[in-house]
């Protein structure tokens, strides 16, 4: 994919995430890997619903701006370190969605409650230790807690979701928020009973077998 096409898709995703309530105001950030050595990332202080492709910054994975007139997101260290640690990751979303952030504040991991979450995500969402926003300490803690997974809660902060495409990162962020809301609502009526590890494994394997990494695609048009 060309740089210009990736810029267009990332900006479209920012608008869609804003519409879905995953991002509000100037908070949150999105990036996409351009190649093995660089990424496009949203600028600091911009409402994602108002971004233009030319507003995005091109950065290397050591934190240097290669092209762009604005200041990059303060969470650029976190994005770059994730790409350095995970060659499979092509997009990163950092959101402040309501229910998932509430769970991050109380330090409650999101268990696997639904077959949909087991299939598409396939693991509980852990909570990082607290670290100051925008620091390499936070970046390292996110990479540690994320491991080979698709999402993690940032203690007292928000959510990080990753994917092999912008569409998958968006889908994961949306599912994390939905699962957090399900956890809250189920506990308000009784006890939210998570799926067992074997059930999660079976659902995840069936999902990958039946749909495949290349075939499954969110109906999100970017």
TrEMBL record:
Keyword rRNA-binding: no
InterPro entries: Aldolase_class_II_sugar_metab, Aldolase_II/adducin_N, Aldolase_II/adducin_N_sf
Cellular component terms per the entry's GO annotation: cytosol
Domain Class II aldolase/adducin N-terminal: start-end pairs: 8-184
Keyword check for Lyase: yes
A molecular-function term among this protein's GO annotations: metal ion binding
Keyword set, alphabetical order: Lyase, Metal-binding
Any one Gene Ontology BP term: pentose catabolic process
Protein's recorded name: Class II aldolase/adducin N-terminal domain-containing protein
Species of origin: Candidatus Terraquivivens tikiterensis
């Amino acid at each position: 994919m060309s740089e210009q096409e990736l810029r267009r898709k990332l900006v479209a995703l920012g608008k869609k995430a804003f519409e879905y309530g995953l991002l509000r105001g100037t908070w949150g950030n999105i990036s996409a890997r351009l190649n093995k050595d660089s990424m496009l990332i949203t600028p600091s202080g911009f409402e994602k619903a108002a971004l233009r492709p030319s507003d995005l910054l091109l950065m290397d994975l050591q934190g240097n701006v290669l092209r762009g007139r604005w200041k990059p997101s303060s969470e650029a260290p976190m994005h770059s370190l994730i790409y350095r640690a995970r060659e499979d990751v092509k997009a990163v979303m950092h959101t402040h969605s309501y229910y998932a952030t509430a769970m991050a504040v109380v330090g409650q991991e999101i268990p696997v409650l639904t077959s949909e979450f087991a299939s598409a995500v396939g693991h509980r969402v852990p909570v990082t230790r607290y670290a100051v926003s925008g620091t390499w300490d936070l970046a390292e803690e996110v990479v540690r807690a994320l491991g080979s997974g698709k999402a993690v809660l940032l203690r007292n902060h928000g959510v990080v979701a990753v994917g092999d495409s912008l569409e998958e990162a968006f889908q994961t962020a949306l599912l994390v928020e939905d699962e957090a809301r399900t956890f809250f609502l189920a506990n308000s009526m009784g006890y939210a009973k998570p799926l067992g590890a074997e059930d999660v494994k079976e659902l995840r394997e069936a999902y990958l077998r039946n749909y495949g990494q290349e075939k499954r695609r969110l109906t999100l048009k970017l």
